[in-house]
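Margin note from the TA: students keep mixing up input and output lines. Inputs are the sequences; the output is the structure of the whole complex. Example:
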Amino acid sequence: MSPSSTPTTEAPGVAPGGSIRVRIRRFDPSVDAAPRFESYEVPRTRLMRVLDVLDHVHEALGVDLGYRWLCTSKKCGTCAVNVNGSPVLACWEEAQDGMTIEPIGNMPVVRDLVTSRDGYEATLAAVAPQLQRREEYPGFPEPLAADDFAPSVHLRDCIQCLACQSVCPVIAQKDAGFAGPAVLVALAELALDPRDGAARGATAGSVAKVFSCVSCYECERVCPAEIPIVSEAIEPLKRLATAQGHVAGARRAAAFLAVVKERGFADGARVAFQLNGLTLRALRLGLRLFRRGKADILGAWRARRAPGADSVRRTYEHGEGSP
Amino acid sequence: MIESVDTDVLVIGGGAAGTNAALKAADKGARVAVVVKGLMGKSGCSIFASHLPYHDTSTEQKGHDRLRYSVRYYNHYLTDQDYCLRMGKYMRTEFFPDLEKLGVYWRRGEDGRLMATATRTPTIVSHKQGASGVIIMDKRRRAILGRGIPVHEECAATGLLQDGGQGGGRIVGATLLDLKSGRFFAVRAKAVVLATGHSDYLATRSTGTREQSADGIAMALRAGAETANLEIQWWHISDVLEPRSWMRYHLYPNPLLGTEETSRLYNQAGEMFYEQRTHSPASSAPYVEQIRRLAREVMAGKARWDGGYWSGYDHIPAETIMAYQHQAKIWGKLGLDVGKDRIECGITMHMRQGGIDVDTQRMTTSLPGLYLAGGIGSHYLGGVGPVSYDGKVAGEAAAEEALGRPDAPLPAGAVADEEKRVFGFLQAGPAGPDAVRPIAAKLRIREIMWELGYVKNEAKLNAALDGLLQVRAEMVPRFRLESASRAWNTGWQDALDVAAMLDACEATVRSGLLRKESRGPFFRDDYPFVDNETWLCKTLLRREGGEWRSRTAPIPTPHLKPEKLREPFFDADY
């Protein structure tokens, strides 16, 4: 029988013994020159969450720690912090001894663990504001089937905690103009809505820059709502953008696909040359990679092909020919 | 130099009431601004909405069931019955269509029809039971941002501005403090809609969230408004006990969507003492009956208020729960099996039925220019549907008034006084015998209200009052913060919260001392009977020159009357 289903007579909140030490990154941009870490000792309570630790530092130790929380039940998505380098919801994850708590990445710090959501909100407003009906609303309840919403069922679990945005390596490259996984989840939910009539493919390709996604799956790894972000939001949007002809941002994807089709394997150096051309910068990078054995730049210019290349090409042609 | 912005209608609060007030006022052509202490649609109580009453009044019987539920089981006759009828019509004809128009997906069954819970007062959900509020509020948020309505988020309204001096004149705006930057400014408005909700974090265990410190009650009281029935305070009993921060995880007692099943509550001996389908079949919000049954267990030594009893779904196939209950995943997170294990619970202070006294026709108050929407009012318990109705009525009425009025000058003296009050708390100093961190006072207030608890009497109410006065006299003057930074200074926020909490809690306790009976969620063991002869009325309080003034006023019962004038509290079925 598990602890919670065993009747106990102990008062709640009583430490099962001992305490834990945590390190928290403190930073007040209005006065501090640089962030610093402070260490706190916190009594361990039963089933203690990361948020319980932050509450203790604030409430019992009287520290004016900046941290954000609202619902404490995985609904509001405002308490995400990095624990040992990875974003989690403070209200959801269990506290660990020795953990380091920091603000989530890819957004400015307001104070300590509080980060600014402004960038995300502005992008969301530009990319996926709301449903645009293809036909006039017919009145309640409108004729809909449960199946109509099956493709986007997991997307509706998003609570906008921004854990995914905080780990996205493409967002970190600020010049990419990439909207980010959380915004794309919202966009995909609209795009997959049978009632929606807006040109979501155009938005996905040209405004949200969906093709900048490198499919690294970091967003899925950290999503507390366990949303299959790449396969159920980003890939459907890429397909939609392609189908609607908005592939301007798909230069990388197109080059990658073309090289695989031609050579039967992902010849990284060839893709790089196709994308960047023969510039001095590309040559320098290529040489560096070549010396470390990471890119065969000479091979990229040879018309080499993998043993199964014909079969790969046939697969392509089959796919391209299908309706 | 006072920084100020102008608008026609200022909405204070970003939950279901405030967002609808903003949208409806904007529909009327008014310039609208919204101020939210948390994040619009994410803070407050609306996000917790699980399942929504579908006001099916297609037959006379169904219409009667619906009204009876609102009046008797939800408000214990302490409501405006004509308001209930108007609100019911809105629910049927506008609430669900408005949200569906915005894109909310109301759950359909395999046959394409709406899935409703199998009760006499059916409810429907968006997406999953337990997630409706998240989805509804997200759509409202996007509608407001999409229309370009200015929203000041993580910004606290600290006081209402009045012409002709504080404490009586017309409401002409509010002062705001941006919690992220410490920027203090005034909003000049021709009408103000107060929509700060009904779930405040005033007791050690509360469903109220971080930002909810009864600011609306405190601001309205300071401006001279009258409170009504503040003592009628609901409690949840099936909220998770541990971890501590999960006190707002609610293990729903209502029927599972698409089934007739409900969760069950068990005492220390493993005896089942509550399930909705058996013990409150007429009510789909059975909290009042739940806590009465728990009270019997506590009195018999078979449970405590903070634990020693359990909630579970182990009599239902796990797949059924996973299909509809958003919150079922918590079993897994705690390493438990939802089909087998039970979770220990504690009570939490939940919504307040009372609030600021309001005329429901146009949601006006005794202060000209001040409108109310939602749980901050004293007219109805709440719920995202009813408070959306309030938002519509208040937003439209405020817009109509504002569009017909000239600009009022900003009361510069009042703004400067309020700035002095707010920045008076921003004093840093080392901890020591002469220094109190504001969080200590906050925790003490919550402890006082928790100790007052569910079972009240004259002595306990007086002890609570003494405790609050002691915090005010001995702790507040010694407040020193850890730092004087203006950027998200948690200590500064706590100090401002404490000031509001003290006003609201004191009024609540005084209101409890006035009511000499027990009713609904309000239980006094020195008056353990429902007394419809004397106490089917409002307990009203206001402050005048530092003195409390109280009175009572009868509540009309034009459509439904209680059958018995007087009956033992534990025998009444409402």
